[in-house]
Specification:
There is one protein chain. By secondary structure, the chain is mainly β. The protein is built from 5 helices and 14 strands. The chain has 2 domains: about 5-115, Acyl-CoA thioesterase, double hotdog domain (Porin), CATH 2.40.160; about 155-275, Porin, CATH 2.40.160.210. The protein has helices at about 5-10, 40-50, 190-195, 205-210, 225-235, and strands at about 15, 20-25, 30-35, 35, 60-65, 75-85, 90-100, 105-115, 155-160, 175-180, 215-225, 240-250, 250-260, 265-275. α2 packs antiparallel against α3.
Length: about 280
């Protein structure tokens, strides 16, 4: 009997009888991140609610997730609503809530999703995959720190811009290049691609080699492939590249790219991150 993958357990949501598009779920200790779930898992949950909606059209092309508050351990509710459906695109809003101290729902996460019925057209990539060593030649990153369980769910092999070994303010760049995939093999799909788009630690840590408080406020991920291209990736490695762009008065943005081993650009993302001095 095949056991359920930890990521699929974390994404397990149930249709509710309250209204169409309403789901319930439970947080997963396997993807915990200090004070709440790993943000990539939360993004994947928002996408999952849309993909399991009976009225969904096509496949995802864009996902924006806004983290209003940390999700506490326990039960949560998700509402996915189609606000506009055109011939080829569909626009969604998603809300994740938890019961507050008074029992009333408290908003933790808002999101928007755009899905589309793609049609075959001319296509090309102007963002080639960087040159890189083969993943099996790169050392795997060691187990993550206490309280950051989600890191252990991934196999990460950074070959440039790893987490600083010394927090001494000596760094002067913010780029990381890394091979990554699920630690327990799992075929790539849109949900796991959304999660992996948020796997890069805050660029301010690398840029300054200083461990300051930081957290994602909002992330947008664009999907550049369909189910057939994801199936070709299977359980293989993804090459990830992330870099900061502008650090200013408590917020910075960082961009990320994910390619398959064959050099296909699968997804790009950009996020705005809060940090303290």
């Amino acid at each position: 009997m095949t056991s359920t993958h930890p990521f699929d357990k974390a994404l397990k949501i149930h249709h509710s009888d309250i209204r169409v598009g309403h789901f319930t779920g439970m947080t997963s200790p396997d993807y915990w991140n200090m004070v709440g779930p790993f943000g990539g898992t939360t993004a994947a949950l928002a996408l999952q609610a849309v993909m399991q909606h009976p009225d969904v059209l096509g496949t995802p092309i864009a996902l924006t997730v806004n983290y209003a508050a940390a999700i506490e351990a326990g039960a949560f509710d998700i509402q996915a609503t189609a606000v506009r459906t055109n011939r080829s695109t569909q626009h969604w809003t998603v809300q994740i809530t938890q019961a507050g101290a008074s029992g009333a729902p408290s908003m933790t996460t808002t999101a928007t999703v755009v899905t589309a019925a793609r049609r075959e057209t001319w296509g090309e990539s102007d963002m080639p995959m960087p040159e890189s060593p083969r993943p099996e030649t790169v050392d795997r990153m060691s187990i993550g720190p206490s309280g950051v369980a989600w890191i252990n769910q991934y196999e990460m092999r950074p070959f440039s811009g790893g987490i600083p070994s010394k927090w001494d303010g000596s760094q002067h760049h913010s780029e990381t290049r890394i091979w990554l995939r699920d630690a327990q093999p799992r075929p790539l799909d849109f949900a796991s691609l959304a999660a992996m788009s948020d796997m890069f630690y805050p660029r301010v840590w690398l840029r300054r080699a200083k461990h300051v408080p930081a957290g994602t406020v909002s992330i947008t991920t664009y999907f550049h492939v369909g189910p057939e291209q994801l199936a070709e990736v299977g359980t293989g490695y993804l090459l990830g590249r992330a870099a900061g762009q502008q650090f200013f008065n408590g917020f910075f943005d960082q961009t990320a790219h994910l390619w398959s081993e064959k050099g296909v650009l699968l997804a790009t993302s950009n996020q705005i991150v809060y940090y303290k001095e």
